[in-house]
């Protein structure tokens, strides 16, 4: 199997390569792609060095799979070109996610959606991804009527340059030096909390990130009627998104039952002993593929509402790990070939 990793020099792409190595992904050949700036660079892949290539009509030929994390513009143009050349594309950008013909898939939640792919498969937004892994068992057991979601998102979710911006600002504050101007975020991110993740489209008082969380959750869970309200904030954390999720179930579900349910759910680890100071922390999830859930408790204002605290590594389960899991499932099920349309 020949696999292309597009955006291989970025925060998500380099994590994809790391996860492929860790999981001994069954590729005969892996070709990293990035912008022309990086063409010719070598990437250490353990037993071999990989040379970064630029995207051209010739260089994209002959692949079975292409894992994309190079931004929406690149996915819009080059995703269909890879698919037309015979590869199945697993795309991390937001560009294809809400198209009806594109499955939006989380490995533990709706892998059956892969069966109907037409060449492009979308990997959900990191914030949505970790939340639905924890919500799926609750949906199956008790139904979900409404979600109120508040997020505390790490800067690596914006990419490598945002990590550098936080680092430079934090160092300047600690050294009592003049702060370098904010360029990635609209305000200083070091020692601050920004109630804006991504941008406000004209006339919308929700951000594009908040809209994605609401729409993608419904699509992945296959529940158009779940009522959802999301507020997304950026916090000065390098890696690991934290989320407070208030879940209104259709049927009764006690905190104890919920804890038991989640303890046996795939991809979830319950960390919930607050009296002992045990609850999910962003610094504990970095480098892990599991979604951590804790602070599971009754909402005192509503009989059928529970509160959860959900934490995931945005670069791993929130992006790279799920993309590699989807690639594995596609390969195992013999779905790594673009079905020809008549
Ligand atoms: N970070 C997260 O937690 C996260 C989670 C889920 C999804 N995503 C999505 O994944 C994508 C990448 O995010 P990231 O955080 O990894 O960003 P990043 O660190 O800025 O990396 C971007 C990558 O795309 C490449 N690239 C940029 N322009 C290109 C072009 N015209 N042609 C080919 N390659 C190009 C870059 O190559 P150079 O190094 O040569 O510039 C780099 O490899 C985005 O769509 C993002 O929304 C990110």
Task: Write a structural description.
α1 crosses α8 (316-332) and α3 packs parallel to α5. 30% of the residues lie in helices and 22% in strands. The protein has helices at residues 11-22, 72-84, 126-142, 160-174, 208-221, 255-263, 282-285, 316-332; strands spanning 2-6, 29-34, 42-44, 49-51, 53-54, 65-68, 88-91, 120-122, 144-153, 227-234, 241-249, 268-270, 291-298, 305-312. α7 (282-285) links the parallel β12 (268-270) and β13. The radius of gyration is 20 Å and the shape is globular. It has a six-stranded parallel beta sheet, sandwiched between helices. It has a six-stranded mixed beta sheet with strand order 10-9-11-14-13-12. Strands 3-4 form a two-stranded antiparallel sheet. It binds NADP nicotinamide-adenine-dinucleotide phosphate. The site of NADP nicotinamide-adenine-dinucleotide phosphate has 28 residues, from α1, α2 and α8.
Write the layout of secondary structure elements.
Elements: E1 2-6, H1 11-22, E2 29-34, E3 42-44, E4 49-51, E5 53-54, E6 65-68, H2 72-84, E7 88-91, E8 120-122, H3 126-142, E9 144-153, H4 160-174, H5 208-221, E10 227-234, E11 241-249, H6 255-263, E12 268-270, H7 282-285, E13 291-298, E14 305-312, H8 316-332
Parallel strand pairs: 1-2, 1-6, 2-5, 6-7, 7-8, 9-10, 12-13
Antiparallel strand pairs: 3-4, 9-11, 11-14, 13-14
Helix pairs in contact: 1-8, 3-5
The protein binds NADP nicotinamide-adenine-dinucleotide phosphate.
